[in-house]
Amino acid sequence: MRADSLTATVDGLDEALAAVDAFDLALEAGLLRPRPDRAEGLTGLARAVAGTPLAARVAEAADKAVAGAAAEDHFLALAAARAALLGSAHDALMTRVEEATGRPRGEESAPAHGERQAVNLHTAARSWLCDLARRGWRGIDHDVVAGAAQIVSAMLADPALRRPATLLDGFAAELAASCPGASLARVPARRWADLWTRAMLLTLPGASAAPTAGTATGRLLPLGVDLQEHATAVQAQVHAVFEPADGSAPRLVRASVSAPKPDTVVGAGLWQLLRPHMSLLTAAGEGRSMDLTDMPVAGGDLIWSDEHARPGEPVDPFVTARVALATAADPATAPLDRHPARIAVPVFLEGYTVRKDDDVLTFTVAGHPLAVDADRAPAAGPLTPQAVAGSAACIGLLRWDAGAYRLQPLAVETTVRKKTVAVHAGAWAGGTADKAGVRAEKAATDAVAALRERAGRLLRK
Questions:
Q1: 104 in helix, strand or coil?
Q2: Considering the entire predicted model, what is its pTM?
């Protein structure tokens, strides 16, 4: 990998992010009557998109917001401008990543045209989000946040609206846990503005339409599992190389599974919530390939169905990384996913040196430092920062965070008793004989059984 590409300056990146930060400060204080020192964040956002097709609408929206007279359409324009700036930052950063990996990028597929549905629910969600923007994060209270409950309940009943419903539900839960906003010592301004922006755009007709779906037949070679946990939900995303049966070029794909979770299920117990929904987790944990037949696929995401997959031969992810990863095409990024925080590109590194200063881990690759975010390894697996620090080879996700590229390890090769062993973050995905994993699994089993018994009692009443 050409690590020098990751340290070069990206023209215009700092200016774009500064405009976003200034708008986020205005949103933190609220847009009902913006203070003069925060109004600059609105006009600065308009200047940042001058010369683009958004220019006129965003300029009008900024003027209305400064005057405290912004309507829903104006908030939508501001959200679109913010998303466009972060999208341009994403594209510039991804250009550097492509230079570093030398891999081609796949073609972007057009979104599928679905029927316009649930306009009333979209309108209700947008109205609630506009109320949040007017009050700002410092002005939220439980009454305002509770306004999302009925909207989320109605959306969850419609499978086509699960995506915005899940986003609104998690967003409202975070806000509720932080009420009242006036007492917060620190506001996660970038995160909440990201969630607000995405939710606003998902209320537009067709915004949540998935790329046109096709099918995939061939062999799937897992590279690693990225486990992401929220207070109310958990998601596992398997990154893999797909080799089409027709002999065409291999490409990188993802397969994801999500599930709601109670607070009492943590650590290795999370896999119990996910396994029943995706056999790929067991294959990844056991080090097996999967043979796919007509698996639905949209862009770079497999729309997983166990009916279209069966376990294949044993495979070593490190062999896959060494042999197939360099020539596999990266998937194109969907428009709403163009955000620096969404960058997660599989890479393989070896021959690096490891340095640790003040608990900060760094790999030096071809003379260039690359920060390592070893703490992102989940507690639901055996991969530890110590194993990463002692590694000689690494499969990871290249991310961009806090102004720099960082590596999130998914698996490493390290030496234990003079033998090279592989340690994977998703090693317990299909089950484990590891003592710590077994204890966590048993605790989760007991917790889930207790919750089901209580739910059963409530339903019987």
A1: coil
A2: 0.88
